[in-house]
User: What shape does this take?
Amino acid sequence: MSADMERALEAALFAAEEPMSAEALAGFLRDAPIEEVREGLRALAAHYEVRGIRLVERGGRWHFETAPDLAHFLRRTREQVRKLSRAATEVLAIVAYHEPVSRAEIESIRGVQTSSGTLDVLMEEGWVRIAGRRESPGRPTIYATTPAFLDHFGLASRRDLPGIAELRAAGLLDPVEDAYDDLMGAGEDTDQSADRGDPTDV
Amino acid sequence: MSADMERALEAALFAAEEPMSAEALAGFLRDAPIEEVREGLRALAAHYEVRGIRLVERGGRWHFETAPDLAHFLRRTREQVRKLSRAATEVLAIVAYHEPVSRAEIESIRGVQTSSGTLDVLMEEGWVRIAGRRESPGRPTIYATTPAFLDHFGLASRRDLPGIAELRAAGLLDPVEDAYDDLMGAGEDTDQSADRGDPTDV
Amino acid sequence: MSDSASLFGEDAQDRTRGDEALYLELDGWEGPLDLLLDLARRQKVDLRSISILALVDQYLTYIDEAEALKLELAADYLVMAAWLAYLKSALLLPKEEQEDPSPEELALKLQLRLQRLGAMREAAARLMGRDRIGRDVYLRGNPEGLEIARRTRWRCDQFALIEAYGRVKARTAPAVHMVRERPVMTLDSALDRVSAMLGVTLDWMRLEEFLPPHAEPRLRKSALASSFVAALELARLGRAEIAQDEVFGPLRLRRVAG
Assistant: This one.
């Protein structure tokens, strides 16, 4: 078996658009003797045995394919980091503060309908999990946070989440604070409060 | 360089539908160090040197192709490349050796008007692209070659264009006016000729 | 063709055909410069050392014979012929009668142009002769393809989380709406004030004259609104008449006597 035969078979099989039989290959190679072609194919297959691609025979026809143990190199995941949407952040916060909660409870706390995609995003990210079903009419699915959630947000436990009193002290319940100010007749910030807009329509 | 790296590169390049840069390949190989990838590519290319297929670099991107000496086995069934007209081959050569180049410059070299169809054919083939406009009076469109041009003609880079170094050394890529000034040894107006920019008025 | 010297064209692409064939190839030329290049190559010397005078003669002879054969020549071939005839006569003139640019300069530039075209013709031939994909080398017939999946990683931090909860709580807390006390003139007091003032005079008065003087702006606005409604009410009761001479003009008011 000549090296030329092996090279010619290699090129022909590489360029072929579909698997080729030994007979078809012999036709390419100036009608080379079929036995030489078969021998060449075996030698070629042996050469590729240890490489990243392999020469395989399926139903009498030969083709190159990538080695199966390398399949994971042919796929690549490109990661794209994006800021979690406002809606998703709110849902995540509600799950964290109230877990376990059903979707209906989340909606009633948020005061807005929650798209199912929002919970999916949080579960895909590994921050929220399904925590079973509530033993109440309709047996709704209930959701809770995961250990990965605590890790990511730097919380030792859910007890680390600030309480309502702390939130208010931190000014995180601002719109309510303003209403309180108004009640107390805080004088000159009328214009400011006019600018703020309706705090309920968010 | 590990055998694993070589195998993984081999598989990825085999499976790829387009030429791949070392950077893109590194992305598939779990962000392997780029130097290891380059080293692997060189080793792989060396391995295939004597075989029926070859690993080649074109414009910084790598692909496998059949060895050129085996063309006669493969031509039979493969579609022949479209034959370019003489005008088109000349225009292509002028774009490649002079890029970026305006249509007026092409015409001044050929001494004949270039039909817009000629450039269209080359752009359709994917070998020539519009490379912006020249910042000179009339802001003419300028043309350059593409990575597909390098691929098709088996050029690692434009430096591989046949004879380009000799042509440049002989001044044959300079406009006639510059060459004339050089020949006349016009010492004092070198600056002028450098400023001239638009070599179309020959 | 193998070496760089051939780039200058002495042996490149020499069309080996007889002179008779030459005349039948008129369509084959890519313009007069192309014809000149081919004629120059027939001199079998480096393009740098061709004789321009001989080349001009060859070209003019070619054009003459083509015309004798009644071949149709495109205008640019004739323009080139005229220019070359001029160049030839200028080259033969005594030096002192020459103008600028000199015929030598023109001849040299023509030679430079021919060299450049020759170089590109040669380059094109060598380019086309390379191992080309689809003709000499082939790509993989049926590649499996590589797959790039996109995955989004979400970014969020503790502060954003807690702030979001605060936002939800603030939004859904029972809303308390407070109306701040503000200086107003009620409709009743406006009615009293306007009817009292109307009693003082029978003349037309502008509505603004019924407003309390020196009132602060917000009170003045309220008083204007209330007084206007009061005026309408008095008019309805037949106790006053209202006039306005033009759109947005001053509203005037007077008591209906009786």
Q: What stands out?
A: The first helix of chain C runs from residue 19 to 24. Residues 1-21 of chain C have pLDDT under 50 and may be disordered. Chain C touches chain B through 42 residues (CB under 8 Å).
